[in-house]
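Input for the complex:
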Amino acid sequence: CANPILRNTNFTSSVDLSTSLDSSVQTRIFKIIVIGDSNVGKTCLTFRFTGGSFPEKTEATIGVDFREKAVEIEGEKIKVQVWDTAGQERFRKSMVEHYYRNVHAVVFVYDVTKMASFQNLKTWIQECNGHRVSPTVPRVLVGNKCDLVSHIQVPSNTALKFADAHNMLLFETSAKDPKESQNVDSIFMCLACRLKAQKSLLYRDVEREDGRVRLSQETDVNKSNCPC
Ligand SMILES: Nc1nc2c(ncn2[C@@H]2O[C@H](COP(=O)(O)OP(=O)(O)OP(=O)(O)O)[C@@H](O)[C@H]2O)c(=O)[nH]1
Ligand SMILES: [Mg+2]
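Predicted:
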C-alpha cells in the first residue's frame, strides 16, 4: 500500500475491489464518507451498519478504515463502501484529498451529548465544500449517542433547523443501543436508495489506484425517487 496510514479493517466482506470488479463488473459501488469530530462515534456507527454490533472497544481512527456491506435494493446488488474517517487532525491531514475524491454521499456526525461537536459541523461542511463536492452529492446529519438521555446537550429542534438550513436529513440515533440498529441501517440505506435512483451513476472511468477502484459520476437529483 502506497500510503501507510490507509488501513483496511473490513469486517464483513473482502474489500479487494479489483477482484470484485473482474468477477462482477455490474456491481455498483457507492462510496459514502463519514465525517465529524473525534469521539462522536463514527467508527461505532459504521461498525454497527457493516458488522451488526457495537464494538466493545475502539481506538481513534488513523487515516481511514473502510468497510463494505453488500445490499440489495429493488433487485440490484450494490456494494456500500463506507469510509470511516479520522476525526483527529493529526490522523487525517494526509488523507483528506482521498476522503473526498469521487465521493457519492456524505454523513456528518455529531455527539448529542457534546455541544462543541455540533458547533464544529460548520467547519466540517466548509471542508467538504472546499473539496469541490458537488451540491448534488447527498448529505445527511447524524446525532449519535441518544442512549445517554440525561446528558443530551443538543436539542432536537436546534439540530433540525441546522439540517434544514443545509438541506440535509437528520437522524438522531445510537450506535450502542441495539434497539436503534435499524435506525442506523436506515442512514446508509436511505443514501444508497437515493444513489440508486440517480440512474446516471454508472460505471464510467473505472480506474485502479493502489488496488482500489474509482468511479466517476454524473448525477441528476431530479430523477431521484427515494422514499426518504
Ligand atoms: N453511549 C454511547 N457511546 C458511544 C456511542 N457511539 C460511540 N460511543 C463511544 O464513544 C467513544 C468514541 O467512539 P468512536 O466510534 O471510536 O469515535 P470516532 O468518531 O470514530 O472517533 P475518531 O476515530 O477519533 O474520529 C467510544 O468510547 C465509544 O464506545 C453511542 O451511541 N452511545
Ligand atoms: Mg473512529
